[in-house]
Amino acid sequence: MIKGFTQNCHTEKDKCLVCGERLLPQDMLVMQQDDTPVCRAIDCRNIMSRKDAMPELAFESYLELNQKLVRHRRQVGHARKRFIASIQEQEQQENHQICEHVLKQYPEIDENNLQLVSIPSGNSQVEPVPQERVDNYLGHLRKIIHKAAKLKHVSEAVQDEHYTAHEKLVQIEQRLDDITGLRQVSEQLCFNCKGGCCVTGANHAYLSICSIKRYMDRHPEMSAEDIFEQYVSMLPEASIQHSCINQTSQGCVLPRELRSDICNGHFCEPVKQLQMELENEGRLGSLLAIQRSYNVRNKFETGVNNEIVAVFLYDSDQQHEIDLEELLTESVE
Ligand code: SF4
Ligand code: SF4
Ligand SMILES: [Zn+2]
What we know:
This protein has about 325 residues and is α+β, with helices and mostly antiparallel strands. The protein is about 50% helix and about 10% strand.
């Protein structure tokens, strides 16, 4: 007889035998006929599915070991959720205080017409680009240019996220055109952020066979070698540390035309969210942008400071920077 199994079955019928989590009505719906209390999580179900195929004693040890592993993983997961929730709660409180401060300072702004967006910050430390990074980048460029040159049409390329990025870009461009002021404010937000999302650009800069093939089609007068040389000529001597090789303190060295569709069509979640909300409303009112020191990759890492580094108000096509010192002094009082 499986000790843990029967014991748990009799005493804790309302909890999953594997992970120990309380069973929800959704779990009950997928429970097997034998009434074994197991939740709908794939890992828990997979573990229990071995029961009939294993000798009882072997399954008992197997279950015991996996209970420990799964429960530990769940604990780590719950702790992480609590950690993220505490950061979000603190940010919400701070955002609320900032809103109140700004509304006091600018009484002409309609509270019901004030949107809020939180933006990250790009890294700022610049370093000479190590030769290893240059070699990686040039190797990547050579490979994709060589492969792109062999395609008759871009549709022959693998239909991955680089391929579909083009359609997304077309939709995003449409949205930016449809809502007055949205393109300008989106560009302004990115300018203030200084490439918080470019930290993931590494040594590939999201350049792909698809982006190169599309560029080749727009420039039939250029050879593969010309295109390679063009990218090489733009490579900076120094770029932002731990970020895309093309990101400098002045921003991306590549003109939009040479960037990938992924880069051109990318907006981080908060900016995307803002754009979609405004698409529903059809217009841009007043916008409060709270910039924090994290970048898109490290927001919820322990030890990363999410402190406020700047606050901007966009109203009637004007950008005002809110005096942070005054704001922080007021929130302490
Ligand atoms: S999309 Fe977001 S993270 Fe990227 S530069 Fe713009 S504001 Fe910064
Ligand atoms: S190529 Fe430019 S836009 Fe794209 S990730 Fe690099 S720095 Fe950012
Ligand atoms: Zn479970």
